[in-house]
């Protein structure tokens, strides 16, 4: 029987990512949504049970998994409440506002013996899957330079919580977890971190530009996000001892989900872009992108409820938070930082 899931929050993340991906997984059943706007939920999900108070679903013994897709500053209290109720928990990235908050959530879940995971969905972007495979195969030899960009052209500051001042807002809290998680999946924790984070658009009320360098003994990883990039930029640039890999464009799954497509649709996760590969002589060849596969996250969560390993572990999520926090300190102080300890 599929496990009953309550989704807390039906904003962009809940509506676009979590609801359709949960519903696409046969091992899970979206049984309830916690929202103060039932009309919005029912416009997309007619007949769905909607509760205004999370306490109602936490008290429901039929609910086994709680997915938290609310603004970042509410992740910690909601996660603790769900853990106290004995529910398995998935939190949209980032896990919390600070490493200390994230560590407390992870410790709480471990003490109660409850499942805890974080929605780091861009591990399953098609371009990242392709880059990861080629690096593992040694296609360009030893990697010495890895550059990852999330660049957009959004010159107008919008009135939404991600762009208003407050805890958990800003581009680094929004896109930084994706950039950091992908880098850590490939290379592990860096030796030290340098960073610059700023507000560059006219009228910007929180950070809208971030440039972070992860320093390893024998390689450098550049993580960049900006909101004033009209001409576009490569998504990934990877240089190695035997060649280079360069990709353009973003994985299409977010756009597909927002347009109403669902996993299993024709060309799901398939991008038009190709990956350019250059050998040591500068000769170029093209490699097709692997298809993206966001459904693998909730397939992994469903399996974990039956005892399989988690698709994203608490330790991996804490590593992301540690690097995120070190980058903020590095940017604020102008000094390189080491990754703070976590358990």
What does this structure look like?
- The protein has 343 residues and is α/β, with parallel strands linked by helices.
- It folds into two domains: 3-119, NAD(P)-binding Rossmann-like Domain (Rossmann fold), CATH 3.40.50.720; 122-292 and 324-333, Dihydrodipicolinate Reductase, domain 2, CATH 3.30.360.10.
- Helices cover 33% and strands 24% of the residues.
- It contains ten helices and 14 strands.
- The chain has helices at residues 12-23, 38-44, 54-58, 75-84, 99-112, 126-136, 171-187, 253-258, 295-304, 314-333; strands at residues 3-8, 28-34, 50-51, 63-68, 88-92, 116-119, 143-151, 192-198, 209-215, 220-226, 234-240, 243-248, 274-279, 284-288.
- The strands form two sheets. It has an eight-stranded mixed β-sheet with strand order 8-9-10-7-11-12-13-14. A six-stranded parallel β-sheet has the order 3-2-1-4-5-6, with helices on both faces.
- Strand 1, helix 1 and strand 2 form a beta-alpha-beta unit.
- Helix 4 runs parallel beside helix 5 and helix 7 crosses helix 10 (314-333).
- The longest helix has 20 residues, at 314-333.
- The chain is globular and about 60 Å long.
- The mean pLDDT is 96.
Strand content: 15-25%
Query: N- to C-terminal separation?
Result: 35 Å
State the major sheet: 8 strands, mixed
**What structural class is derived from the secondary structure elements?**
alpha/beta
Write down the domain tally: 2
Helix content: 25-40%
One letter per element, helices H and strands E, the order comes to EHEHEHEHEHEHEHEEEEEHEEHH
Tell me the strand order in the biggest sheet: 8-9-10-7-11-12-13-14
Reported CATH architecture of the largest domain: 2-Layer Sandwich
- Mean pLDDT equals 96
Instruction: Return Rg in Å.
Output: 20 Å
CATH superfamily of the largest domain: Dihydrodipicolinate Reductase, domain 2
Q: Uncertain regions: pLDDT < 50 for 5+ in a row?
A: none
